[in-house]
Amino acid sequence: MTRQLGEWDSDNVRLDRRTLLRTMAGAAAAVALPLGDLARAANLKGRINQSVCLWCYNGYIKKEKMSLDDFAAACAKLGLKSIELTGPNEWPTLKKHGLICAMVPSHGIGKGLNRVENHEECLARVRKSIDEAADAGFPNTITFSGNRKGMDDEEGLKNCVAGLKKIAPYAEQKKITVCLEYLNSINHKDYMADTTKWCVKLVQQVGSPRIKVLYDIYHAGMMKEDVLADIKNHHECWGHYHTGGLPGRNEIDETQTLDYAQLMRAIADSGYQGFVGQEFIPKRPDALASLEQAVRICDV
Fold first, then answer.
1. Residue 11 has pLDDT above 80, yes or no
2. Maximum separation of any 2 CA atoms in the chain, in Å
3. Which of 24, 98, 118, 241 has its CA 20 to 30 A from that of 71?
4. Residue ranges in 137-215 assigned as alpha helix (H)
């Protein structure tokens, strides 16, 4: 693996070539560690179980000629506990480094549960993902509302509730939480589940402990929601969180507008025991340094 020495240094957070080599050399210490021990090995407080979305680093991994094994080792060394939105063929590599997949993918975004005619196809994929997650010992799988395409939001809500009620008993049986993702309808044009009010109604109307919402902080911020109030007032509806700098969806530091340390304290204080997935797209050349910085910001 070759890379150029990084030149960015902020708040003494840096992961240059020498640090990365130490990371890889020390990765054996993270292998097969229980999740709590990963945080302790990285000198983290561990109140927030942190994960990272693999897709955000695909470009960096390709540029640096890293393998998934390399990336997983670096993530474990940073104290992350999960690399999410990965598939079964990638999970043995994660497990080698003591990591899990905190959010298992299922069907796509645009074609979702807001249309009854999509239920059979989408729920078959969700059911398969529930089985995969349960077999692997992972906690969650994802689903989506789909796009409006002229449909009234209340009709779409009714259809999503009906679809999720079909899968809820199976999710409860398998002890897997199905999380419908909150996305903004600016980047994801016409996406239906784009308000806190709609998402809270969904969870309340389904009425299952295994049906929640993936509350994406960046997307909620894009829709001008009061994110801190959403966390404090509706935390029982959120089964998973994602991060992202606002605006731009880049680093979650002082270059953007959200106070992530404050938000993480609210999440921890709510009693939340799930995962927070880092889903920002690194803008700086040294993406691992940005990831390390984000881990420290969220370690409250």
1. no
2. 56
3. 241
4. 153-174, 196-206
Distance in angstroms (rounded) separating the CA atoms of residues 217 and 277: 10
Residue linked to tokens 């003494």:
12
Strand-strand pairing, 177-181 and 211-216: parallel
- If one counts every other C-beta atom within 10 angstroms of the C-beta of residue 208, the result is 16
Would you state the structure tokens that stand for residue 201, as one six-digit string?
């109604």
**Strand-pair partners of 211:** 178
Residues in contact with 283: Cβ distance below 8 Å, sequence separation at least 6, in sequence order = 248, 250, 251, 290
* Strand ranges across the sheet with 211-216: 82-84, 49-53, 275-278, 238-242, 211-216, 177-181, 140-143
Tokens of 270: 């709510």
Total H helices, total E strands in the chain? 12, 7
Q: Report the residue count for the chain.
A: 300
Looking at this protein, which amino acid is placed at residue 265? Answer: R
Say what the pTM is: 0.88
Mean pLDDT to the nearest integer, 208-227: 98
Give the closest residue to 3 by CA, choosing from 13, 14, 17, 15: 17
